[in-house]
Amino acid sequence: MKASPEHGRPLAPAGAGAASPSAPAPAGAPTTGAVWVNGVLVAPGTAVLAADDRGFTLGDGLFETMRAYGGRVFRLRAHLERLRSSADRLGIPIPPDLEDAVRATLAASGLDSAAVRLTVSRGPGEGLAPPEPARPTVVVTARPYAPAERWYAAGLRAVFARGRLNEHALTAGIKRLGYLDQVAAQAEARAVGADEALFLDTEGHLAEGAASNVFLVVDGALWTPPLSCGVLPGITRGVVIELANAAGILVREEPVPPDALHAADEAFLTSSLRELVPVVAIGDSPIGRGQPGPLTLHLLDLYRGRVHAELESGGVS
Hints:
Elements: E1 8-10, E2 34-37, E3 40-42, H1 54-57, E4 61-69, E5 72-73, H2 76-90, H3 98-109, E6 114-121, E7 137-144, H4 149-154, E8 156-165, H5 180-191, E9 196-201, E10 206-209, E11 213-218, E12 221-224, H6 235-246, E13 251-253, H7 260-263, E14 266-271, E15 275-282, E16 285-286, H8 294-313
Parallel strand pairs: 8-9, 8-15, 12-13
Antiparallel strand pairs: 1-3, 2-3, 2-7, 4-5, 4-6, 6-7, 9-10, 11-12, 11-14, 14-15, 15-16
């Protein structure tokens, strides 16, 4: 994407007399969100996408979805590390100032609770072969976000997707722009009144949700598919494993047969926006008692406590 000068203002570098990118937005700042495109803050809705941008024409790019609490992104550096690792695999050059760009966009939005998305494409170019040199397009958006409390009070219903997740794909485990399989699976789930579609891998093991990682609770222990099943190394997934280990809760990262969901005591999904969400049924079959389970809710409390502690202390994020 690109922006004309009249649509935005360049970001002044830190230390150049401008406000710090993480400084609070001034009184009267907009609360509908903000957009940052290749070094320029633009009004939402005015950004322009180049017709030959490979993110648009080929899905040739990456993205990260993050959540801000109190005007700060939780585990921002972990998200950026994952993005850079994926970019290295694909040979997409990543600018060094992404952390400042995210903080500046969030500050400009005036939002405390926000969904923040960072998108990086390989930039403009024609044909399948990557252009040399690549000129990546970088976009950051911040929009208002508030989770639905019914997710945690009542839980979600999931169904298995008809398609499979290919753990042998060149892009396995990468949060890439080409998400059409997930879009189609989620549409099928919604058509039958479900909230999430769950993918199996090509070997028939449980892999991940269309927009989430998956955990089962069995006999007081956690069981989650390993990364070798092609699942995304979710940031929230990693925090849950950290919390469980610290609390003395056994975590099994082993292949999960799909029938194990029906026999589990509890199940939940993890994602940066939704945190931990109970899954209470697969299709018409309840999981456990068919209601959010105690260990799931306990881990949700621990997770929210970790978010608060890290952001208050200015620690890991």
